Amino acid sequence: MSMSESTNFFSRAQGSVEVAARFAELHPPLEKTAAVIEALRCLYCFDAPCAAACPTHIDVPKFIKKIASGNLEGSARTILDANILGASCARACPVQVLCEGACVMHRYNKQPIEIGRLQRFATDALHASGAPLPFSPGADTGRRVALIGGGPASLACAAELRRRGVRAAIFDARPLPGGLNTYGIAEYKLPLAESLREIDLLAQLGVEFHFETVVDAAKLAELDASYDAVFLGMGLGGIHKLGVVGEELEGVTNALEFIAGYKSGTIHRAPARVAVIGAGNTAIDAANAAVRLGANEVHMVYRRGSEQMSAFAFEYEHAREVGVKFLWHVMPVGVVGTKQVQGLELAHLETTDDGSLVTRPGENFVLATDLIVLAIGQATHTEFLDRTPVRDGAKVRLERGRIVIDRDTGQTSNPKYFAGGDCVNGGREVVDAVADGKRAGIGIAAWLAGQRANSLEIAGGYDVNA
Length: 466
What we know:
By secondary structure, the chain is an alpha/beta fold. It folds into three domains: 31-129, Fumarate Reductase Iron-sulfur Protein, Chain B, domain 2, CATH 1.10.1060.10; 144-237 and 381-458, FAD/NAD(P)-binding domain, CATH 3.50.50.60; 252-374, FAD/NAD(P)-binding domain (3-Layer(bba) Sandwich), CATH 3.50.50. Helix content is 38%, strand content 15%. The chain is globular.
């Protein structure tokens, strides 16, 4: 399936459920005058803590100052130079705890600069102008890299490779690349169309895309033989199951499938009663989506208290504002129903002195629900690496299912393989995956250049690999 065919498919699906109407963005774009006024509030700090707080280290004062002076193309270039997915990160990043959280305005009891919305303003202006990317691919080196997975880490890695003249081919199991940006981030944060628009930027750089291609051990061996290096950016696997009776009933799904379902058009409405298991940011996204899809009653179920939930505080507050209810210190012990889910059996939990959780016997209750959405963490997806070709006496090393890398270069214990994103960090923010991919792209290009230099030296100045 080509990029255009995939985009058209999703465009039809998106329109069929009127996603835009149901999932209006939380933070609307800034108008030009408002953007300039906000940009002029910035102090343009020399030692900008906001830039230090950004995992991709965008020069925040520089891009904001260019907005203030009317140089929107220069502003967008500053952003994209550091983060090719700057437009999606402007929408999806938890700026409250990153760049805006580090803003010096907090010291003066003032509102932080709206860095995320200003970043969106600059990148949106570039897209709206129809102008091409403000940089071009580097001179072709003749080297080729295969990238496994089409999420933010692989996209960022591919951009760095192309800018250095290395050919990049992305292999993804789904109909479209983008990973969680395309399939797993709530539409009210990052619209599907915006994720696809960024992928078009990568196509401008000459990145190749191979859709609906599952990479298993056999396929990986084929890619290993055909490419000069391999980047592993396949993210995580499926969401964990509860392991309770009744989990196989109709009406039990997981948060990623639920979010991907409404974004692609296969889910049009939510039933009246929805229970979401978990208390992370993805669980919050699923619960908020259920409300927007028409559910009358949405409960989030968590085994600990609000102080232990992994979701950001501002995400929690937003969920409460839209009517999501929270059940704390309870654990699912069974799914009630015959063919279709009718309820979720829950047990009360207590915390012992050593911090472990125990159930209170005899106090179980049933929460009536029509849909159960699991969001209790994802499994790793690295089992196929067990048969990775051995180089220099080493395979790709794993720890608890995660790929171990050199944090400066992204290189694994197998020197031909690099990695980044959730398959390394276990599941963090989009911008963290972008930072991983960016480092790895630079690291791969440097490693390939070193391999070529070694070949020239061994051949006495003649490049045997040319």
